[in-house]
Amino acid sequence: MIERVRAVLVTADDTMLAIRRTRPGIPEYWVLPGGGVEPGDESREAALHREIHEEIAGRADIIRLLHTMETGEERQLFYLARIATWSFDDRTGPEFSAEGRGEYALEEVPLTLEGLYGIDLKPEEIAHVLRGAIGAGSLGVEASP
Asked: What is the pTM of this model?
């Protein structure tokens, strides 16, 4: 089974980092930073740290596993994490240099119901989970010190 890890990266301003994808012929949508677990990764969390470093040159503290989603031969694990530093200009992931992959733009999205309803976050299942947790006040992200 293919495993992918993604992170709800919460900033000190209680926004969420999301990548806005723009591709020819497809309506704009947003995804959470992350990617595939590779054979050399020591753990899923190690894979997530590697992906965060590659995609946004960031460092994050993982808080907890938020949601698991399985479809066919793929399992996606969504983690809740606090992001301290990032630099989209210093990203190194292979997807940024591949031809025909469209544009990737890092954005801070308010971690509110209005913020989440204002974007087309994919997959819809994680958007639903986040909206439910925010609405119930149970996301579990403690304020920054």
From this structure: 0.90
Give the integer Cα–Cα distance in Å for 109 and 115: 6
Closest to 77 in 3D by CA, of 109, 113, 37, 112: 37
* DSSP state letters, 90-103: G---GGGTSTT--E
Go through the chain and tell me how many residues it has.
145
**Residue 14 tokens, joined:** 């209680």
The distance from CA 56 to its chain's CA centroid, rounded to whole angstroms, is 10
Residue indicated by tokens 């309803």: 117
* Each residue's pLDDT tens digit, 109-145: 999 999 999 999 999 999 999 999 999 988 877 543 3
